[in-house]
Design brief:
- This protein is α+β, with helices and mostly antiparallel strands.
- Helices cover 41% and strands 20% of the residues.
- It has helices at residues 23-33, 37-44, 76-97, 102-120, 123-129, 133-136, 140-143, 161-171, 176-186, 188-197, 237-249, 257-261, 271-274, 337-352, and strands at residues 47-52, 60-63, 69-70, 144-148, 154-159, 201-202, 206-207, 209-210, 223-225, 229-231, 233-235, 283-294, 305-315, 320-331.
- The protein has a 5-stranded antiparallel sheet, with helices on both faces. The protein has a 3-stranded antiparallel sheet with strand order 3-11-8.
- Strand 1 (47-52) and strand 2 (60-63) form a beta hairpin.
- It is globular.
- The relative contact order is 0.19.
Length: 358
């Protein structure tokens, strides 16, 4: 069974295409050009991608969308994606091979997947952890539980109760201990091998990268970032938007949108809702994953934080939906309403500039 079959096609309109719907980009550029003072200083370094979900030809706009940034908790989305992908392939194997018992099922998983994962694991991970399969291969029995019929034969596959609880703790309660458990379950190797094969991380070291467990229990494997040097949790806004857009429109092989979106339910967790920036207006976040994490100390020894978010945003005035990913808002501590309001205005200007096709 093949689990590494090559990259998805780009689900966003080509950046240089002459027929690209550029209304959002023009609105974003105009907003940025009108900034001055503290607003310009704060927002110029924020990376943003906004994708219109009106049809399958995804119009979008971006600012610093190709820059790799340390992004803190936002990148935990890759662990969620890897877990659902592992479950998907395990279900496919079950249908294809029909193992007669749980032990036979797990033996079949190892036989079918282990060497392929090792072969596809990025070289910097194998250099650091190549002799330790726990960092390369999924902990199948920790993540997956076969569903049995009356005779004890596996008929389906779900997450174990404990692993599902850890996923919810990682995504909904922002718990780093839960994130570590989730990441250990899918392992650095499989998680980043699949991200690379699917096209969400590329050989030029751009894309979504997660090779640190947020607790330092496993030795991190780092790549270069624009905002924080060598880091183990990083993404570009554009690549995260490509992944999240597929999560929301159901075009990932790893499962139905409902399988993924239940982990992100509750737009009230959006930074903008937390600070009452979108309480009753035309825009609302229906699903959100926020991020915050510390940068390395600067030359003066000061530790700043970066704030980020991926969200599905609904425009009730026009009944339109958008994917919004932003990162690299630098703050000295927890973000304030005033700091987040700048980003919300940046997002609102971009969304308001979208012109639906007729």
């Amino acid at each position: 069974m093949e689990m590494f079959t090559g990259a998805y096609g780009d689900n966003l309109q080509a950046e240089g295409a002459p027929d690209r719907n550029r209304s959002m980009q023009n609105a974003l550029n105009g907003f940025m050009n009108g900034l001055s003072g503290a607003d310009r200083t704060a927002l110029e370094r924020v990376a943003l991608t906004v994708v219109a979900l009106e049809n399958t030809d995804r119009a979008w706009a971006g600012h610093r969308h190709n820059e790799v940034h340390f992004s803190g908790s936002l990148v935990k989305l890759l662990a969620m994606y890897a877990a659902h992908t592992l479950r998907f392939f395990s279900r496919q194997l079950l249908l294809a091979q029909g193992p007669p018992s749980p032990d036979a099922f797990f033996l079949a998983l190892s036989s079918a997947f282990d060497q392929k994962i090792k072969n596809a694991t990025p070289s910097n991970i194998t250099i650091e952890h190549g002799s330790d399969d726990t960092k390369i291969l999924p902990a199948y029995r920790t993540v997956l539980e076969p569903q049995l019929d009356a005779a004890g034969r596996p008929t389906g596959v779900e997450f174990t109760f404990d692993y599902r609880s850890q996923l919810r703790g990682m995504l909904l309660q922002q718990q780093n201990a839960a994130a570590a458990a989730c990441i250990h379950g899918v392992a650095f190797g499989f998680m980043n091998a699949k991200a690379g094969d699917d096209g969400f991380f590329r050989p030029n070291q751009q894309g979504i990268w997660l090779a640190g467990d947020y607790l330092g229990q496993w030795t991190p494997v780092r790549i270069a970032s624009t905002n924080d040097g060598q880091v183990a949790q990083a993404t570009t806004a554009g690549d995260m938007a490509r992944l999240v857009t597929r999560m929301f429109d159901g075009s990932l092989e790893s499962g139905r949108p409902t399988d993924l979106l239940q982990m992100l339910a509750g737009g009230g967790r959006s930074w903008f809702h937390r600070e009452l920036l979108w309480p009753n207006g035309g825009l609302s976040a229906t699903h959100a994953k926020i991020g915050i994490g510390p940068l390395k100390p600067n030359s003066a020894g000061v530790v700043e934080k970066v704030v980020s978010e991926a969200a599905k945003v609904h425009d009730s005035n026009r009944n339109l939906d958008f994917v919004v990913v932003w990162q690299n808002l630098k703050v000295p501590a927890e973000p304030t309403r005033a700091q987040l309001e700048r980003v919300s205005r940046m997002v609102e200007a971009t969304i308001n500039g979208f012109q639906p096709t007729v």
